[in-house]
Design goal:
This protein is of the alpha/beta class. It has two domains: 136 residues, 3-Layer(aba) Sandwich (Peroxisomal Thiolase, Chain A, domain 1); 225 residues, Thiolase/Chalcone synthase (Peroxisomal Thiolase, Chain A, domain 1), CATH 3.40.47.10. 38% of the residues lie in helices and 18% in strands. A nine-stranded mixed sheet has the order 3-2-4-7-1-8-11-10-9, sandwiched between helices. The chain is globular, with a radius of gyration of 20 Å. The two termini are 24 Å apart. 55% of the residues are buried. About 3% of the residues have low confidence.
Amino acid sequence: MASGIKDRVAILGMGCSRFGERWDMDGPSLMVEAFEEAIADAGIDPSQLEAGWFGHAGNAVGPGAIPLAIALRLHNVPVTRVENACATGTEALRGAAYAVASGACDIAFALGVEKLKDAGYGGLAGGSRGPYYDAVNANVTAPGGFAQLASGYAARHGVEMPDLKRAMAHISVKSHANGVINEKAHLRRKITEAQALDAPMIAYPLGLFDCCGVSDGAACAIVTTPEIARALGKKDIVTIKALQLAATGGWEAQGEGWDYSYVPTTRAAAARAYNEAGISDPQTELSLTEVHDCFSITELVTMEDLGLSKEGEAVKDVLDGKFDADGQIPCQIDGGLKCFGHPIGATGIRMVYENYLQLLGRAGDRQRKTPVVNALSHNLGGAPFHTICSIAIVGLQA
């Protein structure tokens, strides 16, 4: 089996727009906002970019990748548009990283953008979603699908629903507290556990504060080889330790052997990523994580799927503060999808952006107090019964 791309690709620069209701900006303007920060951080001229990958799942721009080239004034640079549900941003990064690792180009970039507020998308039922939903599950919603993850988890592990609800509330309170000190976050208001527990029900047992919203935003990563990064004057170099993707083959939806208590694609992608990165004990070798907290229950279950909590112990670990900003393995130290925001095409790159800042000690008030060695980001697209999972692990070059 191939050894992967560990330490063969360095992140030369990154940028991220402010996420939120960006009525003042169109899609191309958000792309420019993220790109300008990334190109300045990289310390290169745009003419040095040899290829680009554009992650976009909605309607912020026209078809294809041409809008990316036009917005950034990249003449005759090969650009490719990718879409892979909520893993779109990481998919774009994967394209750029693989191009550099293969030797196809020296410097490449990935950029993701979304303007979901303009589209009016709220995560509930409605609109055309293809024949699978029309024929099999016409009334499926994102909250409804992930609410079943909560019920399945509680049933498998014998967790009383009030205890699970309290753990989910803790996750939401944590994300809001982290978002308050992030100037680029969409939602910047603290909440209390009581507010989370007493909030209007969206899809039992998920209340209002258990659900992330949708946002406008863009994020960008410029990648090269470690050797080129050093030649360009970079001293502390962040490299990609692992970049893995796992997609369902439909087994979960067949109703044989899966009980809605975990996400199989996350476990598969995590195992591959740890193998690629050379990580044998994620609980001691990961410094922090950014995971796909589309719903608070998703974050909780993901802790077990990533091996950061033992089976059935995530509720206890969450309530004990293991994943708080000052805990053993902080999760969503920037607010996560819940409060930083979730513009689908940008989210995966935004997660790596936070880990990149933390590794370089540039995260400001939210900087992790203990040294950051390896940081993981995790995206989950689809519903629990048909998912695609992407995982990126980044760290400082030894």
